[in-house]
Amino acid sequence: DIQMTQSPSSLSASVGDRVTITCRASQSISRYLHWYQQKPGKAPKLLIYAASSLESGVPSRFSGSGSETDFTLTISSLQREDFATYYCQQSYDSPITFGQGTRLEIK
Amino acid sequence: EVQLVESGGGLVQPGRSLRLSCTASGFTFGDYAMSWVRQAPGKGLEWVSFIGNKASGGTTEYAASVKGRISISRDDSKSIAYLQINSLKTEDTAVYYCTRGLGALDYWGQGTLVTVSS
Fold it and tell me: Looking at CA atoms only, how far is residue A21 from chain B in angstroms?
């Protein structure tokens, strides 16, 4: 199975900060990498697909980059509603696997 | 508007079986693969299973952790996907989400909680 490792596992930041979360795959996954946001008690929401494509309706402050094994999710200017847990997920090979999550908290 | 609504969860004893349902609306259900993802309390996301659309022959795949105990199926005439879980274990306790797709999972249901306990 392809292992997905996110860093950091948790992060404290302030409104207005620029934040970057990284995701590393245990082998090359081309650009079959997707990012999700999950708030407490809610289902995950797709933010970015295919490494860098913004899902419809997602604010442009979210962006994704990377290929092969190394990927990043960047939030350019944190808003209060962005405090949540973020997951990366690969769909290059079965089984689909997720990173362990990055919890973004208010400083 | 795309909607996915799960049902069928609840409290069940170890060793028993459960069938979860996912009722879809707002899109042509038969055109899409469907997946199930679960989340144990306080833990991360774990993909469980997917079923391809009719065009793909309805291919199914299962996570190793549940293979042999889980069966996924679909009824395109009713726009429902099912997840049958047999021989339930305490470690199957989780919120089970129905999702659309098998690459990027673009729509998720609200989840149904399965609690396995004696």
Answer: 16
Indicate the SS3 state at residue B49.
strand
What pLDDT shows up at residue A14?
96
Please check whether residue B49 is in contact with residue B62, taking contact to mean a CB–CB distance below 8 angstroms. yes
Which among A88, A15, A21 has a CA at the least distance from the CA of B104?
A88
User: Taking CB atoms and an 8 Å cutoff, what residues of chain B touch A91?
Assistant: 102-104
Cross-chain CB nearest to B109 (options A43, A45, A94):
A43
**Arithmetic mean of pLDDT over chain A:** 97
Q: What angle do CA A90, A95, A98 make, to 5 degrees?
A: 40
Instruction: Please give the Cα distance from A27 to B116 (Å, whole number).
Output: 35
Alpha-carbon distance of A16 to A95, in angstroms, equals 37
Tally of CB atoms within 10 A around A77: 12
User: A40 — phi, psi (to 5°)?
Assistant: -55, 130
